[in-house]
């Protein structure tokens, strides 16, 4: 988390830059030593269910640890999304107990 408010809210700030149909997105797994390389392999092998399971397990673990270590009540992701002409801002509240509700539709 990048910011801790006076109400013990944790905010992770990120930026996504859209370039001609692709993005330079922030990787939520950038500091996940145990899952990072394994995820690349699972994506290459088109094992979407396994990749999602590994990602959600690691992400939940990371978020719980961050919340506990920093005595946080709520967690948010604040994202700036830019194109050549516009900048958008979005804010998501993280609900740890809902992360496992994310489902995969496979690879296309």
Structural class: alpha+beta
Radius of gyration: 15 Å
From the spread of the alpha carbons, the general shape counts as: flat
The total beta strand count reads 5
Tell me the β content: 25-35%
Which range best describes the helical content: under 10%, 10-25%, 25-40%, 40-55%, 55-70% or over 70%? 25-40%
Contiguous runs where pLDDT drops below 50 for at least 5 residues: none
The number of helices is 2
When the domains are counted, the total is 1
* Intertermini distance: 33 Å
SSE order, one letter for each helix or strand: EEEHHEE
Q: Main beta sheet: strand number and arrangement?
A: 5 strands, mixed
Mean pLDDT: 86
Walk me through this protein's architecture:
There is one protein chain. The chain is an alpha+beta fold and 108 residues long. The protein has one domain (3-99). The protein is built from two helices and five strands; from the N terminus they run βββααββ. It has helices at 36-44, 48-69; strands at residues 3-4, 9-19, 22-23, 74-82, 87-94. Strands 1, 2, 3, 4 and 5 form a five-stranded mixed β-sheet that branches. A hairpin with a 4-residue loop joins β1 and β2 (9-19). α1 runs antiparallel to α2 (48-69). It is flat.
In short:
The protein is of the alpha+beta class and 108 residues long. It has helices at 36-44, 48-69; strands spanning 3-4, 9-19, 22-23, 74-82, 87-94.
Question: Top keywords for this entry?
Answer:
108 residues; alpha+beta; 5-stranded mixed sheet; 2 helices; 29% helix
């Amino acid at each position: 988390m990048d910011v801790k408010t006076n109400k013990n809210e944790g905010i992770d700030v990120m930026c996504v830059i859209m370039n001609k149909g692709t993005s330079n997105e922030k990787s939520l797994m950038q500091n996940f030593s145990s899952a990072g390389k394994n995820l690349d392999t699972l994506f290459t092998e088109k094992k979407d269910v396994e990749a999602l399971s590994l990602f959600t397990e690691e992400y939940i673990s990371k978020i719980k640890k961050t919340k506990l270590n920093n005595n946080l009540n709520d967690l948010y992701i604040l994202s700036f999304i830019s194109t050549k002409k516009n900048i958008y801002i979005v804010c998501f509240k993280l609900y740890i107990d809902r992360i496992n509700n994310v489902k995969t539709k496979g690879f296309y």
